[in-house]
């Protein structure tokens, strides 16, 4: 028979009192907090092929495949053929998506007609008393005009609008100025003519689409040039040289249109006076200048891969503008006017990539 403990201390020791266990656990935790492996700082993350530059990574992976046994390499080749069949399915998928876009745009034309009529004042819409969309809280849209010089300058540029104003003045000009990619094209001397822009529409063909700019009569354009067009040609199939880079139809070429300017009103030209050395009289020259309307006279390159770098850069930017007009600006113009889509263009979509950017990406991987 076990003898009884003579004191509370003996009972605690015999039964393993909870307080004594807790003290032991706390001491262990404190010791863990102060423990630091000596080698922890010297351990480096394992190196992987993803850490290599693109050109080195591709060469290394080709080397890795070359080291595999021939039966394994044959299986890899079969998988690449399998992937090529997926590309063919993707081509068909994107072709049908484009046809759906083309068909549903036609269903939206009545809404675009109504938009044009409101903008031009041909129709006065009924008073809108209900909103079917959420609004940002006012405190989240605070403007610090006192400490921001750019905001003050922009506020000074705002033109006053009379309550008797017809339609929505400067609508399309404001939309273009609100979008970075388009704002870069608009110069100060372009603004008076862009204020006369009444509508921007699309016309779809099987392998191309046309952006149509409609102007009201003005002092810059001859009456025969009140409708300006820009046509973009699409390639719906994968590039035979880089089939695995296919991510949808790509713009491969564009065509502008001739602009019939009124005398002395060509916004793409400027008159410059200069005095030649040792001559008293001044010489007048007509020089090209930056203008939004150069958009309608893009450089021509039947084979973009053979074009010089300047042409590639100009056309690459032009293709991005064409894609943006088709997918964002024309269908959603009012949202860029109001700022609802002010952040929507921060991430580039795969479809907007041109052949030049695709080729540059492949070239970076090859080099």
From TrEMBL:
Family: Belongs to the nucleosome assembly protein (NAP) family.
Transmembrane domains' residue ranges: none
Gene Ontology terms: cellular component: nucleus
Biological process annotations from GO: nucleosome assembly
Annotated spans, Disordered: 1-49
Short name of one Pfam family: NAP
Gene: Dyak\GE16558
Name of the molecule in the record: Nucleosome assembly protein 1-like 4
């Amino acid at each position: 028979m076990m003898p009884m403990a003579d004191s509370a201390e003996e009972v605690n020791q015999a039964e393993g009192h909870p307080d004594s266990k807790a003290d032991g656990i706390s001491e262990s935790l404190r010791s863990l907090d102060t423990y630091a492996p000596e080698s922890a700082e010297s351990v480096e993350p394992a190196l992987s092929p993803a850490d290599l530059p693109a050109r080195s990574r591709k060469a290394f992976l080709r080397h890795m495949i070359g080291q595999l046994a021939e039966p394994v390499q044959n299986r890899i080749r079969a998988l690449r053929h399998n992937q090529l069949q997926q590309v063919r399915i993707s081509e068909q998928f994107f072709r049908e998506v484009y046809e759906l876009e083309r068909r549903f745009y036609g269903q939206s034309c009545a809404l675009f007609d109504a938009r044009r009529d409101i903008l031009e004042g041909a129709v006065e819409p009924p008073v809108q008393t209900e909103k079917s969309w959420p609004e940002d809280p006012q405190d989240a849209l605070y403007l610090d005009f006192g400490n921001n010089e750019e905001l003050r300058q922009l506020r000074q540029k705002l033109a006053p609008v009379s309550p008797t104003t017809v339609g929505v003045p400067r609508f399309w000009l404001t939309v273009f100025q609100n979008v970075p990619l388009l704002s870069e094209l608009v110069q100060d001397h372009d603004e008076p003519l862009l204020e006369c822009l009444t509508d921007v529409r699309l016309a779809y063909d099987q392998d191309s689409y046309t952006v149509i700019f409609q102007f009201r009569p003005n002092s810059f354009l001859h009456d025969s040039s009140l409708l300006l067009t820009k046509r973009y040609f699409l390639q719906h199939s994968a590039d035979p040289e880089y089939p695995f880079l296919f991510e949808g139809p790509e713009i491969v070429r564009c065509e502008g249109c001739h602009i019939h300017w009124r005398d002395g009103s060509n916004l793409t030209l400027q008159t410059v006076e200069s005095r030649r050395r040792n001559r008293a009289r001044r010489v007048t020259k007509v020089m090209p200048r930056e203008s939004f309307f150069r958009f309608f006279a893009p450089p021509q390159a039947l084979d973009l891969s053979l074009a010089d770098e300047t042409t590639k850069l100009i056309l690459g930017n032009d293709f991005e503008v064409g894609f943006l007009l088709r997918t964002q600006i024309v269908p959603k113009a009012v949202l860029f006017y109001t700022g609802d889509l002010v952040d929507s263009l921060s991430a580039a979509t795969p479809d907007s990539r041109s052949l030049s950017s695709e080729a540059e990406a492949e070239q970076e991987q090859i080099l």
